[in-house]
Amino acid sequence: ETSAGAREVHSTLPTSDTYLQITVKGKTCNALIDTGSDRSLVPRRLVSTVALKPSTITLYAANGTEISNLGTMVLRYQVGGQTIETELVVSDQIDELIFGYDWLLANECQ
Fold first, then answer.
1. Which DSSP letter does residue 68 get?
2. How far is the C-alpha of 98 from the C-alpha of 70, rounded, in Å?
3. Quick one: pLDDT band at residue 110, thresholds 50, 70, 90?
4. Is 62 exposed, middle or buried (0-12, 13-18, 19+ CB in 10 A)?
């Protein structure tokens, strides 16, 4: 709690500056663009039936706790009329699709 009495500020709607709207198999969803995340991640609940490739990548949250790595998968999606494929680490400890620094580099974002 701050001296002004506010605890946290949350927006109920993603902003276009931090979220990218993508289409996966005809369904629209938002992906968080997170420059602080080394890897791109997806919650297992969103890809529950997808077979995963084993992965030995160790991931840590900003607070230093380890994030589970269930494996990796490649997601094919559309954005801005282009089809893109991205390798994602799958975890049961995150809540939303995250495009990290690896995604920014792979897509030559500036």
1. P
2. 16
3. confident
4. exposed
